[in-house]
DNA sequence: CGAGTTTGACCCGCGC
DNA sequence: GCGCGGGTCAAACTCG
């Protein structure tokens, strides 16, 4: 969406909500900004480099709860792509209630919001590098990737989570294939790849240098398979929900009683998910429903 | 023994 | 051209 005509984004932003610009980690694309909701402790990432196909999906989210959306729209987008904000709002909308709930239940809320982040990197995909062959001299680029061939960045999305553990359970199995020190950050960045040989999804996990309690997880690509999932139950991690939102497969993960992954527990996400999964309020759950119910089937 | 992790080396793009 | 930083590879290692 274009600028909100006649409205001073900044003023509305500050007066209409408690959202505040939370900065932009050095390690993240310049097109990404972070906002922090002082009331619910929600951290959101906004990436302006949204592409049409994703905007379509995001518009869908926008339908969920425009009331909740508004605070996000306000002040966020003096530029374009407000649909991104809508997505954030929708995502948070589905989270808002739980976020608040978790706040009251657990003291410190820890809700993260994800925004589809597509080919970011300052909006210039061409700047992407694709090493691919990487590694040792043995030439033989493992894959048939010609030298010099540019890397094609897969759709990415990221979210921030307040968590003690870095690698949060999201229903998929990952293999760590690298770790690098991040400039201007005492925390290393870890690189994970989906263990499914046919799946090219990657994931980067790092801690925010500004707030060590925040874990920034970035997914790249789409799973071409179902998650390993969990037998049954009613819990679904937010990471899983978000990850699933942008994958062709249904990503709903269940944690049988007593089998909630340690990572989820320690990341304080359990209270949130429990609320969502047990109460299933129409308005707050719809965001998650979006993960598993085709748009055309959902009630409006 | 297989799967996953660690870690140093290497490749590549970008900025200066 | 060079250095830097991000991303990846793959051998060695660890763990169950």
UniProtKB/TrEMBL annotation:
Please give one Gene Ontology molecular function term for this protein.
Answer: DNA-binding transcription factor activity
Q: Where in the cell is it found?
A: Nucleus
Which coarse location class applies to the principal site listed for this UniProt protein?
A: nucleus
Question: What Gene3D superfamilies does the record point to?
Answer: WRKY domain
Its name, as the record gives it, is Putative WRKY transcription factor 57
Give the SMART domains listed for this entry.
WRKY
List, alphabetically, the GO terms of the cellular component aspect. Answer: nucleus
Do you know which InterPro entries this protein is assigned to? Answer: WRKY_dom, WRKY_dom_sf, WRKY_plant
- Family matches, as PROSITE patterns: WRKY
Entry keyword set: DNA-binding, Nucleus, Transcription, Transcription regulation
